[in-house]
TrEMBL record:
Belongs to the glycosyl hydrolase 1 family. InterPro entries: GH, Glyco_hydro_1. It comes from the Eukaryota. The lineage of its organism: Eukaryota, Fungi, Dikarya, Ascomycota, Pezizomycotina. GO terms for biological process: carbohydrate metabolic process. GO terms for molecular function: beta-glucosidase activity. Keywords: Signal. Gene3D superfamilies: Glycosidases (3.20.20.80). It comes from Diplogelasinospora grovesii. This is Beta-glucosidase. Residues 1-22 form the signal peptide. The keyword Signal applies.
């Protein structure tokens, strides 16, 4: 690790407890012998060698359960159900490929469901090893033993030793359904756009069999509670709830029962659920560009909020929509988000909090003294954050740098829609895994912005992970967007805080590190994931400084991910705080989960 990140713990003084003829040997603060210093005769001594006694094991502290919810966040479903359409059909589906020939069972019958999958031309090779929910077992105490103390610590940790975070700080772990659930063609789930990745013949690891969270969720919740993780963010797939995806189509009762049990089981174990309504897995029939996107989205989202709004305090409407192609689809998403926000606050009378999650690795000028590089970095941020955060947080138009880019297929937001969108969010939610350097391209930004055929269009900036002095930004991971680069955490948080001024604060909704070569290590090597621990410890240390020294309101952090995931076609990028054996499906804690929990035990006020 580089000196900019970590410093070794001080070594024990070589002779700290030795004496010679009753006189103490010089301490480690005094000069050690060198060519011009000699020790007097008799300065060395022998003693009897003995092995030290083993340090008593330290065990993880489980959560207090069940979770107490003194005040409901919304009316119970018995009251809220009146807000749903009266003519909704609730049914169950079972995928039978031979049923495609059935044409007399209506628009949404079993035959139509089979044709839905057949027409998508999606077929998974691997079949789930489970058919029912697996009963949980208590986590053995032998799995809850803390690892040995860290051999390295973040630089400047002594400065933050006494810094505290508020008692209501939201800290925990995150995940997404398609990446961990498996069983993608069971119990009535319809196809999504993510299936076009996972079911490709060229994909080495399809997601029909991954961590199998769909059937092992009770065991996973037990494991989170056993190590004391208080918040768990998971997503619910649109096409499990509404298999055909569109408003007016049947609702899948099996899916409602399944997620009701997941939420209740989490609460029973002391875990607060955070729900992401849409995490990339759009129905095939409802692209973001659909002018009716908001209507279809609300039809689905209302099912979730009416049923679980009383128990769920935090909702993420859409995950990282700012990474979508730059067109009017972004405005459709903002309108859908605002429509749901208004319905939740006004119709459902919900008291919880709603956000929309942004992706952004901060653009850092390659040369901070070069005005062109600074302008390029700010332009990049306009495209990544300003395009949606301006209307949401500031009530301002999409940045001109975006709208004036030649060939851009996005219109200014109308004054009516700007009024609809403005302020319809309770806090800023962001996934700042790392940072990157940005510089103006050859020929300049203006020339690129005027040429839609330029390969750098529309952002029209050069990005790199190598500094102008030739050094990599930080310790590299398996993926190109993630580095151990804590020196830019405060800049990222400061940029968001001072640019968009989110009154509700900032939630770091995803951050994590997939080390190089994890898949080639044995289980013991995977468990001792020092790089991941260093990433989290250094990142969180900078969060403390942002809060206490920069005045930034950070309301929480969620580690990605609580378990190794399918990162959209591969199991190579292992972000998890736990490993998964893809033969036995056994989970194993990594040291990072213990160090992650330990950080908050030290710094969150009780």
């Amino acid at each position: 690790m580089g000196p900019e990140l970590l410093s070794f713990l001080g070594l024990a003084a070589l002779l700290s407890h030795s004496t010679v003829n009753g006189a103490a040997v010089k301490s480690r603060d005094q000069p050690m012998p060198n060519a011009t210093t000699t020790l007097s005769t008799g300065s060395w001594s022998f003693s009897t060698f003995t092995y030290p006694s083993p340090t008593p094991n330290r065990y993880a502290t489980p959560l207090v359960s069940p979770l107490a919810i003194p005040t409901k966040f919304a009316p119970p479903f018995s009251q809220a159900s009146t807000l749903l359409d009266a003519n909704i059909t609730y049914t169950t589906y079972s995928l039978n490929p031979t049923a495609t020939t059935a044409s007399n069972d209506g628009q949404y019958g079993q035959g139509a469901f089979a044709r839905l999958w057949a027409n998508a031309s999606l077929s998974y090779r691997d079949q789930p090893p489970f058919t029912t929910t697996v009963s949980p077992t208590p986590v053995p105490s032998s799995e809850l033993v803390f690892p040995s103390p860290l051999p390295v610590q973040p630089l400047g940790q002594s400065e933050t030793a006494n810094m505290r975070l508020p008692s209501d700080f939201v800290w925990g772990v995150a995940s997404s359904a398609w990446q961990i659930e498996g069983g993608l063609q069971v119990e009535g789930r319809g196809p999504s756009v993510d299936d076009s990745i996972g079911a490709l013949p060229s994909t080495a690891n399809d997601s029909n069999v991954n961590a199998m969270f769909y059937y092992l969720y009770k065991q996973d919740v037990e494991r989170l509670a056993a190590v004391g993780i208080p918040y768990f963010c998971f997503s619910i797939p649109w096409t499990r709830i509404v298999p055909f995806g569109v408003a007016g189509s049947p609702i899948n009762q099996q899916a409602l029962d399944h997620y009701d049990d997941l939420i209740n089981y989490s609460i029973a174990k002391g875990i607060t659920p955070i729900i992401t309504i849409l995490h990339y897995d759009l129905p095939l029939a409802v692209p973001y560009s659909d002018p009716a996107f908001s209507r279809h989205f609300l039809y689905y989202a209302k099912q979730l909020m009416t049923r679980w709004g009383d128990r769920v305090p935090y909702w993420v409407t859409v995950n990282e929509p700012n990474l979508q192609p730059v067109d009017n689809a972004l405005t459709n998403i903002l309108i859908a988000h605002a429509d749901l926000y208004d319905w939740y606050k006004n119709d459902l009378q919900g008291k919880g909090k709603i956000t929309l999650k942004f992706a952004n690795n901060l653009a850092v000028p390659l040369d901070p003294d070069n005005a062109d590089d600074v302008a390029a970095a700010l332009r990049y941020q306009d495209f990544l954050l300003g395009i949606m955060a301006n209307p949401l947080f500031l009530g301002k138009q999409i940045p001109e740098t975006v709208l004036k880019t030649a060939g851009i297929k996005i219109d200014p937001i109308s004054s009516k829609n700007l009024a609809l969108i403005s302020g319809k969010i309770d806090f800023f939610s962001i996934d700042p895994y790392s940072a990157q350097y940005v510089t103006a391209p050859k020929g300049g930004v203006s020339a690129c912005a005027a040429d839609p055929n330029n390969p750098l269009w529309p952002t029209c900036v050069e990005t790199t992970n190598v500094a102008s002095n030739g050094w990599l930004i930080g310790d590299a991971s398996y993926v190109p967007f993630c580095f151990v680069a804590p020196q830019y955490v405060r800049y990222q948080l400061g940029y968001v805080w001072n640019t968009f001024k989110p009154k509700g604060g900032i939630l770091v909704a995803e951050f994590g590190f997939p080390a190089m070569g994890d898949t080639y290590k044995d289980l013991d090597g995977q468990r001792y994931d020092l790089e991941r621990t260093c990433y989290y410890q250094a990142f969180l240390n900078e969060v403390l400084k942002a809060v206490h020294e920069d005045g930034v309101r950070v309301v929480g952090t969620l580690a990605w991910s609580f378990i190794d995931t399918n990162e959209f076609g591969t199991f190579e990028a292992r972000f998890g705080l736990q490993t998964v054996n893809h033969t036995t499906f056994e989970r194993t804690y990594k040291r990072s989960v213990f160090d992650y929990v330990d950080f908050f035990h030290q710094h969150v006020s009780q």
